[in-house]
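2.7 Reproducibility. Because tokenized structures are sensitive to small changes in the input, we list the exact sequence used for Squalene/phytoene synthase family protein, including any N-terminal residues retained from the expression construct. No trimming or masking was applied before prediction.
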Amino acid sequence: MTLDACTELVRSQDPERFGAVLVADPQDRPALMTLYALNLEIARAPFQSAEPMLAEMRLQWWIDRLAEMGQGKAPPLHDVLTPLWQAWGDEAGRIAPLAEARRRDCAREPFSRPEEVVAYVNDTAGRLMGLAAERLGAPAEARSVVADQALGAGLTAWLRALPRLQPLRLGFDTPRPQDAIILAGIARDALHRAAGSRRVLPKRAAAALYPGPRVPQFLAAVLRNDINCFSEPSGITPFQRRASLARLALTGRWWR
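Resulting structure tokens (single pass, no recycling of outputs):
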């Protein structure tokens, strides 16, 4: 089992993070690629069965393997877990809470308030970016900055995905434009705070902190109520993705 399977999974299903990994220092790429591949597997585990109990059993399998790795036990040969073990070792046990946070997805439980979405994003996208940034040298005193960046980027991604989440009962229980506007405001403010404290983070961590393309423009459109997040997909063109990643590669600027 090699890193190739993880690389192809991230390349095909998470192109923004894939591009950001290519910007990272070569020695950091295996850790990022395996982490992001695992995140994709965990995220889709709840959707491999329409029956909540079966979906949770599939998710639990990942949780159990990560817990075992945290105790120093090598996983069974696997396209994702084997390279993850090689890159993370027993530190992979720290990723288990990221999988635990997906139990809500198994239950198909929609959100009733923006605050619930914020908590969910902190537990998913927030944990993911936190692990990645720490691996790329983010110091302990920068945790709140990384958390702000992760919240802003994670809420933006969640709002962009909302047209797909609503039919799956993973969006809001009742579509209210004001809730989307509230979340966009929280995301904008969090990204602004992170940008203001960017100097506490090393340049090496830029690949882990990349929020995706055209984030300020999207949030501004939501705040102006120019986009109906519940029904209007907000796509990113290949040109916009390439331009955004080129900017990251050339300048190392992850903030907005």
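The chain has two domains: 1-109, 110-256.
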